[in-house]
């Protein structure tokens, strides 16, 4: 296999990983917010909208953090720089 094909495979696997992390974090944060709702007996539409926003942005931020850590770790552990071609080349002046 050549570097370009390896890059495509890496991007596909990384995208699937990113989506799985996003879904997992959204479920975890949703369960945590739901348990807080039950604990404090909350029944408000405004707070429900706020909870959805917290779940959405919390899962996106958490996914960004975890994904970057996992990719950096994988690149270092298996020396993937030698197998993957850079996506964006720097222009030389």
Fill in the keyword field for this structure.
93 residues, mainly alpha, 2 helices, 0% strand, elongated
Structure description:
- This protein has 93 residues and is an all-alpha fold.
- Helices cover 76% and strands 0% of the residues.
- The chain has two helices and no strands.
- Helix 1 (3-40) runs antiparallel to helix 2 (45-77).
- The longest helix is centred in the N-terminal third of the chain and has 38 residues, at 3-40.
- It is elongated.
What's a quick, concise take on this entry?
By secondary structure, the chain is mainly alpha-helical.
Outline the secondary-structure elements.
Blueprint: H1 3-40, H2 45-77
Helix pairs in contact: 1-2
Strand content: under 5%
Q: How many E-type strands?
A: 0
User: pLDDT average, as an integer?
Assistant: 91
Outline the low-pLDDT stretches.
Answer: none
The biggest sheet amounts to: none
Determine Rg (CA atoms, Å): 19 Å
List SSEs in N-to-C order: HH
Q: Whole-Å distance between the termini?
A: 32 Å
Structural class: mainly alpha
* Helix segment tally: 2
Inertia-based shape: elongated
